[in-house]
Design a protein that fits this description.
With 746 residues, the chain is α+β, with helices and mostly antiparallel strands. The protein has three domains: 152 residues, Aldehyde oxidase/xanthine dehydrogenase, molybdopterin binding domain (Aldehyde Oxidoreductase, domain 4, 2-Layer Sandwich), CATH 3.30.365.10; 320 residues, Aldehyde Oxidoreductase, domain 4, CATH 3.30.365.10; 223 residues, Aldehyde Oxidoreductase, domain 4 (2-Layer Sandwich). The protein is 25% helix and 24% strand. It contains 17 helices and 28 strands. Helix 8 packs across helix 9. The protein starts with a helix and ends with a helix. The structure holds dioxothiomolybdenum(VI) ion. Dioxothiomolybdenum(VI) ion (MOS) binds next to loops.
């Protein structure tokens, strides 16, 4: 750790402030323009017709009836769909899937678009779609994990994790004093951002303008351009605001491609906005998993092995797997570690990344298994985790870039009151006779960085413009990014204009993997520092500057000036340097960067510990999560208000995963029966009681120059297991599937 401290880190005055969202006023007053708020002249409305069977073919569509509707202008089916230039079964970018765009009359999952109707009004298009009245030839759908054989899918691209094995599993297994062999199942979940997928598409010759929510603006342009045989640079994607995304808006989808195609076919702007029901199928989901966990310990309760086998669903035509078993790599010290992934092809839409893909499901099972193993050893669950604390990354032996997990355990446990927990289950009751249980789980999420660029322009009036195509899903990314930008020039945030949400700006990368602030933030920081470097050279070379002759390497930007570090009296205003040079403005460029040797040699994760209290009615078995305390160490926190809100949101999703969310298929048709917010349960305010988030300070000089890890997804991990373990502690019942429902405890 002394090595850590010897690397200097820069801290500005805007970062660390709990600023409110810069777009908050626009959001709450309704002036923020979302994709579907655009109404270009001569607009046509598109409505998808989703399949109501999961497997078979469309035998008949009453196209004539739909076309006879006076407000319907076109009906697009596999029979008349204009050709696409790019093969929809090809994946043009790393964030691409095979998409369903009326290639043929085959139905591969319920909710698959089987026609698109265009109308002069949304009502006409909706009515036209209803009039199509499809008839199907049906086959028995396979929608449960046991309805097809698990296959090994070739690892490589997104969602196809490799099998990993470290150490000698056989020896470790033979030497273990005791072990468990347990299987956990998680349910399919659907993203359901508040804003459903939408697009307003306009063609101008072979140029395309898209108003579309996107988590990866420039990458999305390349994806959509592929299908239409145009250069990515011909696509302008505007995504100023998103009403959430959770991963589903990083990837081109079939319905959106069809709407763009409809715009080209008709020569008119086309708007499509999926209904809530249509979100269930063609735009990704978190696939169901079945996870077998075998753990063993020696006499001293040290883990001999963790063997984590994941089986998860994928579609019949693509290959994304929920990489759940990865959760067992990198967390607990064990002599031998193994994780495998197998896919089961089902008649469902292709699963996709969904907030904490892999880790959410994997951590749920792993943290329960750890609780079961702790119980077998007779140890307190926290004590058991501490005994198996990894000082270096298990398997690889790499040092962590930073890891304040011990502090998370200690602080979380202290705030929760964990030391008062009775070891045995079913020992606590509250004054109302409710069974009370306490459980905990470890949180972990990696901290990737993607490629991103940014541009900074310092202006003569002392203000600055920062530009990058970053995506703000609603979490406040633009606010945190503007704080970083302001610090890079040493300016107050009021002097910063931040322009984003348009693909024509420098590529801000992907808002995914919890890496957006680290990625786009690093690029912004570098662009601002590029300005300072240029100004510093100008000043150092100018006899009229107080900085003349000083070493540029010692310059720092602060309070609108460049100062010599350690000699702040020696400095000059940024605007003065510009002015003397006769410049109206000065531009800097920057890119996201992580030192390759650090990326290679260090294990990089955010960590946390989550403690849960549940109260359960002993007769009705109704469950309440009455307290959640999460302590997280995620590197440098740029905006504590927004970071805590992200961590809190993740923990709430943990409640949702543990107790609520499940897409319920009708086994006969393969349709999702609860494809709406009436039947697809997520927590409401009344489900969330006392929720506390603690952030633990962590200086990490390796992850990036700013020491930022990421907070978007880690909150789910740890929480799900903590709740299930609390239910076990309250009731003595161990439930090995999610969500856990009343009927499981009856
Ligand atoms: Mo996320 S599932 O990386 O948006």
């Amino acid at each position: 750790m002394s090595d850590t401290m010897s690397r200097p880190m820069r801290f500005g005055s805007n970062s660390g402030q709990p600023l409110t969202r810069r777009d908050g006023l626009a959001k709450v007053t309704g002036t923020a323009t979302f994709a579907a708020d655009n109404h270009p002249r001569n607009l046509l409305y598109a409505v998808c017709l989703p399949a109501t069977i999961a497997r078979g073919r469309v035998a008949h569509l009453d196209v004539a009836a739909a076309e006879a509707h006076p407000g319907v202008s076109h009906v697009m089916t596999p029979q008349n769909r204009p050709p696409l230039q790019g093969d929809p079964s090809e994946k043009p970018t790393m964030f691409s899937f095979r998409i369903e765009v009326l290639q043929d009359d085959t139905v591969r999952y319920a909710g698959q678009p089987i026609a698109m109707v265009l109308g002069e009004t949304i009502e006409a298009a909706t009515e036209g779609a209803r009039l199509l009245n499809p008839r199907y030839e049906t086959m028995t759908p396979r929608i449960a994990l046991d309805q097809n054989e698990p296959e090994a899918l070739e690892p490589g691209a997104l969602g196809r994790p490799a099998d990993v094995e470290h150490g000698d599993m056989q020896t470790a297994r033979n030497s273990a004093a005791q072990g468990i062999d347990v299987t956990y199942e998680t349910a399919p979940q659907y993203h359901n951002a508040m804003e459903t997928h939408a697009v307003v598409a306009q063609w101008d010759g072979d140029r395309l303008i898209l108003d579309m929510p996107s988590q990866a603006l420039v990458l999305s342009c390349a994806g959509y351009a592929h299908f239409f045989g145009i250069p990515a640079g011909n696509v302008t994607l505007r995504s100023p605001f998103l009403g959430g995304g959770f991963g589903s808006k990083a990837i081109p989808t079939g319905p959106q491609v069809l709407a763009i195609l409809a715009a080209r076919m008709t020569g008119r702007p086309v708007k499509l906005m999926l209904t809530r029901q249509q979100m269930f199928g063609p735009v990704g989901h978190r696939g169901a998993t079945r996870q077998r966990l075998r753990l063993g310990t020696d006499d001293a309760a040290a883990l001999s092995f963790i063997d984590h086998e994941g089986v998860s669903e994928t579609s019949s035509f693509d290959d994304f797997l929920e990489p759940a078993a990865n959760a067992s790599q990198g967390l607990y010290a064990a002599q031998a570690l193994r994780s495998t992934h197998r896919g089961v092809r089902l008649d469902v839409g292709t699963p996709s990344p969904m907030r904490a893909p892999g880790e959410a499901s994997g951590s749920a099972a792993l943290e329960c298994a750890m609780d079961e193993m702790a119980e077998a050893t007779g140890l307190d669950p926290l004590e058991f985790r501490l005994r198996n604390y990894a000082e270096t990354e298990p398997g690889t032996g790499k040092p962590y870039s930073s890891k304040a997990l011990r502090e998370c355990y200690a602080e979380g446990a202290r705030r929760f009151g964990w030391s008062r927990r009775p070891l045995a289950p079913r020992q606590m009751q509250d004054a109302d006779g409710m069974l009370v249980g306490w459980g905990m789980g470890t949180a972990l999420f990696p901290c990737p960085m993607f490629a991103a660029d940014a541009r900074a322009t310092l202006r003569a009036d002392g203000t600055a413009l920062f530009e990058t195509s970053a995506a703000d899903m609603g979490q406040g990314a633009w606010t945190a990014l503007a704080q970083i930008a302001a610090d890079s020039l040493g300016l107050p945030i009021e002097k910063i204009e931040f322009r984003s949400g348009n693909s024509t700006l420098p590529d801000g990368g992907i808002a995914g993997g919890s890496g957006h602030t680290a990625t786009a933030g690093s690029a912004l920081d570098a662009s601002g520092r590029d300005v300072i470097r240029q100004l510093g050279s100008m000043a150092a070379a100018d006899p009229a500057s107080p900085l003349h002759g000083a070493d540029n390497a010692t310059f720092q930007a602060r309070d609108g000036r460049i100062e010599v570090e350690g000699d702040p009296a020696r400095g000059e205003d940024l605007a003065a340097i510009l002015h003397r040079a006769g410049l109206e403005q000065l531009e800097g460029q920057g890119s996201a960067f992580r030192k390759p040797e650090d990326a290679e040699n260090r294990a990089m994760n955010a960590h946390g510990a989550v403690f849960a209290e549940v109260k359960i009615d002993p007769d009705l078995c109704q469950m309440r999560v009455t307290r959640l305390v999460g302590a997280f160490a995620a590197g440098r926190i740029i905006n504590p208000r927004l970071a805590e809100s992200q961590l809190m949101g993740g923990m709430i999703w943990g409640v949702s995963f543990a107790l609520h969310e499940k897409a319920q298929h009708d086994p006969r048709t393969g349709r999702i029966m609860n494809a709406d917010f009436a039947g697809y349960h997520i927590p409401v305010n009344a489900d969330i009681r006392d929720l506390e988030v603690i952030t633990i300070h962590e200086d990490d000089p390796y992850v990036n120059a700013l020491g930022i890890k990421g907070v978007g997804e880690i909150g789910i991990t740890g929480t799900v297991g903590a709740i299930a373990n609390a239910i076990r502690h309250a009731t003595g019942r161990r439930i090995r599937h999610f969500p856990i429902r009343i009927e499981d405890l009856l």
